[in-house]
Specification:
With about 70 residues, this protein is α+β, with helices and mostly antiparallel strands. It is about 35% helix and about 30% strand. It has helices at about 40-55, 55-65; strands spanning about 15-25, 30-40. Strands 1-2 form a two-stranded antiparallel sheet. β1 (about 15-25) and β2 form a beta hairpin. The chain starts with 16 loop residues before the first strand and ends with a helix. About 0% of the residues are buried.
Length: about 70
């Protein structure tokens, strides 16, 4: 397991849950870090699917398929 910053003890998620750490870089280059979130696995899967569906890479791939 990776060593946590700030001297906090590592946490373990409950059964059916996952600990999620999120870092996001905006258009201006700023990085936003969010603390660990304990989320149900189903919610995590849905959130990732939504992010992938709306990603620029996915949109570009769909445009290439439509033009082919």
């Amino acid at each position: 397991m990776a060593q946590r910053r700030f001297g906090r003890k590592p946490r373990v998620a409950r059964e059916g849950y996952a600990l999620v750490s999120v870092s996001a870089r905006d258009a201006a280059g700023f990085v936003h870090h969010y603390d660990d979130i304990e989320a149900p696995l189903g919610s995590l899967h849905e959130a990732m699917a939504i992010l992938q569906l709306h990603s620029a890479a996915t949109e570009a791939a769909h445009r290439r398929e439509a033009s082919a």
